[in-house]
Write a structure and sequence with these properties.
The protein is built from six helices and eight strands. By secondary structure, the protein is of the alpha+beta class. It has one domain: Protein kinase-like fold (Alpha-Beta Barrel), CATH 3.20.200. Pfam families: Alpha_kinase. InterPro entries: a-kinase_dom (IPR004166), Kinase-like_dom_sf (IPR011009).
C-alpha cells in the first residue's frame, strides 16, 4: 500500500511541475504520503499512517465498470484528476495508470495503480489491466488535457478499431478463416488492506 501510493505520489510531483507553470491551470492534485509504522508490542505489528483529510471525501476516478461518480466530471478537482490519469497514461505509453483517485479537494489518498500484464519498468500495480482498457475507452478529454497538449484517446482508440475492422474486411476468402476467440478478461486483484 505504501509503495503504490508513494509511487503514484512521485508521478503526481512530475505532473505538478509540468502543469503548475501553465497560465490558467491553477492548483494541481497532490497525493499525500503514506508511512509504514512498526509497532512490535502490538498484536498487529505494522500499520500505515497518513495525514487526516478533513472535509467532503469524493471518489474522482472509476475503479470498475459499475462505479461512476459524476462529481469527477463536473468539479475542477475531478477534471484535473482525469487529466493526471491521462498524463500518466501518455507518459508511460499506455503501460501504467494511476486509478481509484479519491480524497478531499486536491488532496488524494488510497490510490491504485494498474500496469500491463508484465508490469512497467519492473513495477507491478495492484489493479487489473482492465482498468487501463476501461480508461482508454471511457476517458473524455477536458480543458486541462488540452492545456497540457495531451492526445485524445478516443481518436487513437477509434483509429485502432477502424484499422482492425479494415483488416478483417480485406481478408481473402474469410469463410475459411476460423474466428478468434477472445481471451477471458482478467479479474481485478484484491486490494491490499491495512490498519489505518
Amino acid at each position: 500500500e505504501c509503495y503504490i501510493q508513494n509511487t503514484a505520489r512521485e508521478y503526481a510531483k512530475i505532473y505538478a511541475a509540468e502543469a503548475e507553470p501553465l497560465e490558467g491551470f491553477g492548483e494541481v492534485p497532490e497525493i499525500i504520503p503514506i508511512f509504514l509504522v512498526h509497532r512490535p508490542g502490538n498484536n498487529i505489528p505494522y500499520a500505515t499512517v497518513e495525514e487526516e483529510l478533513v472535509g467532503e471525501f469524493v471518489k474522482y476516478s472509476v475503479r470498475d465498470g459499475k462505479e461512476v461518480n459524476f462529481l469527477r466530471r463536473d468539479s475542477e478537482a475531478g477534471q484535473k484528476c482525469c487529466t493526471f490519469q491521462h498524463w500518466v497514461y501518455e507518459k508511460t505509453n499506455g503501460s501504467l495508470l494511476v486509478t481509484d483517485l479519491q480524497g478531499v479537494g486536491m488532496k488524494l489518498t488510497d490510490v491504485g495503480i494498474a500496469t500491463l500484464a508484465k508490469g512497467y519498468k519492473g513495477f507491478k500495480g495492484n489493479c487489473s489491466i482492465s482498468f487501463i482498457e476501461q480508461f482508454r475507452a471511457l476517458h473524455q478529454c477536458n480543458k486541462y488535457c488540452e492545456m497540457l497538449g495531451l492526445k485524445s484517446l478516443r481518436t487513437t482508440h477509434q483509429k485502432q478499431w477502424k484499422a482492425t475492422s479494415m483488416k478483417i474486411k480485406n481478408l481473402p476468402n474469410s469463410s475459411t478463416i476460423k474466428k478468434a476467440v477472445p481471451k477471458k478478461a482478467r479479474e481485478p486483484r484484491d486490494f491490499i488492506s491495512s490498519e489505518h
